[in-house]
Design goal:
The chain is of the alpha/beta class. Helices cover 49% and strands 17% of the residues. It is globular.
């Protein structure tokens, strides 16, 4: 019995040893390797590293094919009471950019246009200028109001951005920067001292011995123009009997009209914008005051006649000679009209601002503001508003003013 028990024990030990080696678990490293070998067969797809590896070269190729752009801007009253002028500037800028891009761009690069809305508010203008800086603009065709262009110019100067306004006529816009040694401020319009020097003597001659009134809206543009016109009129021999200022944005100017009526005023020169001018002349007619209303270039919009109604008839204003009639503007004007837009006011002056900048960039071979400014001062440029050249301050070397008159809801150059 003892022998049989011993044999049984030996058999159990042998079976245990054999079972250990046969059924021994595989090491973790062997188990982990199995999925790598079987994954491709199981999924039928390329492993992730192989699939994503070619993506980097593809992205590089796409970036290489992306067209380079030069970002420029226009800024003005896109909204608010003077939005009519903002629409003119925006349309002029868009058309100029589209035409330049269609012709191959500037230095082989396409132009991208940014539009800033300052509502002719000085504080908003500074905010707009800083926003345009953040968007990488190298040039700004703007702003519209002198009260906006002047504070915004400090931002552009600090950031090395060239500025050409198509509309701001206050002499300080170029005088102050020139005195400070700035070189990158220009305009494609005349100055109020030139406009006043034209209007003042004319008023003194045509209203000799009559009662004249000077009224302004306290703005940088309006007061500046009124003061310079008054100065020129006084030098020519006519003194005003009334000199008043109004607050822009008000709706009731009957108190002003009563004062003008009491002074038996024959002619009113208004320095300000068309919404207030329309209210003044309309309320004057309603009170029986038929004095001649004269003003400056800010009345060069059909919207004045819309706001003033029949009272607009006979109202006159000064501005540069009508650019739409120039041979240089014929093709562009026709294109605007084909698109259903009448390029009045500052439309073509904005177009011209971008034109001269593009030509100067091409000549300078760079968008660097100071180098482009140097090129601008050293050349004569063909534009839609004629051949332009600039003096050391950035003003036009030649600017001619004429009178315009409203009749039947439209304005045209006056033969006076």
């Amino acid at each position: 019995m003892k022998n049989k028990g011993l044999i049984a024990i030996v058999v159990i030990i042998v079976l245990a040893i054999v079972g250990y080696f046969v059924f021994k678990p595989k090491p973790e490293t062997e188990q982990a390797a199995a999925p790598e070998a079987t994954a491709p067969a199981d999924t039928g797809t390329t492993p992730a590293p192989e699939a994503t590896a070619p993506a980097q070269p593809a992205t590089t190729q796409e970036a290489a094919k992306a067209p380079e752009v030069i970002t420029i801007a226009t800024a003005g009253p896109i909204t608010g009471d003077l939005a009519e002028f903002g629409a003119q500037m925006k349309s002029g800028a868009e058309k100029a950019v589209a035409d330049l891009n269609a012709a191959g761009g500037v230095m082989g690069k396409q132009l991208k246009l940014q539009v800033g809305d300052d509502q002719c508010d000085p504080k908003q203008a500074v905010a707009v200028a800083n926003d345009l800086v953040s968007k990488g603009v190298v040039f700004v065709a703007g702003h519209f109001c002198s009260g906006s262009s002047i504070p915004a110019s400090a931002v552009y100067h600090e950031e090395g951005i060239l500025q050409i306004t198509p509309a701001s006529t206050n002499p300080k816009f170029t005088e102050d920067p020139a005195a400070a040694g700035w070189k990158t401020v220009f305009r494609t319009c005349g100055r109020d001292d030139q406009q006043g020097a034209f209007a003042g003597p004319w008023i003194a001659e045509h209203f000799k011995g009559k009662n004249a009134a000077i009224v302004d809206d306290k703005s940088a543009y309006g007061k500046g123009l009124a003061d310079l016109t008054k100065e020129a009129m006084n030098k020519a021999g006519l003194q005003e009997v009334v000199h008043e200022s109004i607050t822009a944005g008000e709706q009731d100017y009957t108190a002003l009209v009563s004062k003008l009526k009491a002074a038996n005023v024959d002619v009113i020169y208004f320095g300000g914008y068309h919404p207030e001018a329309a209210l003044i002349v309309k309320q004057a007619r309603e009170q029986g005051l038929n004095a001649q209303l004269l003003s400056g270039d800010s009345l060069n919009t059909q919207e004045f006649a819309t706001l003033a109604g029949p009272a607009a008839d006979g109202v006159m204003f000064t501005n540069a000679a009508e650019a739409r009639n120039l041979p240089s503007a014929k093709t562009v004007v026709e294109s605007f009209r084909k698109d259903g837009f009448e390029p009045e006011g500052y439309t073509l002056a904005t177009y011209a601002a971008i034109q001269v900048w593009a030509q100067a960039v091409t000549k300078a071979g760079t968008t660097d503001a100071e180098k482009v400014a140097e090129a601008l001062r050293g050349g004569s440029w063909d534009t839609v508003i004629g051949k332009l050249s600039f003096d050391a301050k950035g003003d036009l070397t030649s600017s001619t003013y004429v009178w315009y008159e409203f009749q039947g809801g439209k304005y045209a150059e006056a033969n006076k």
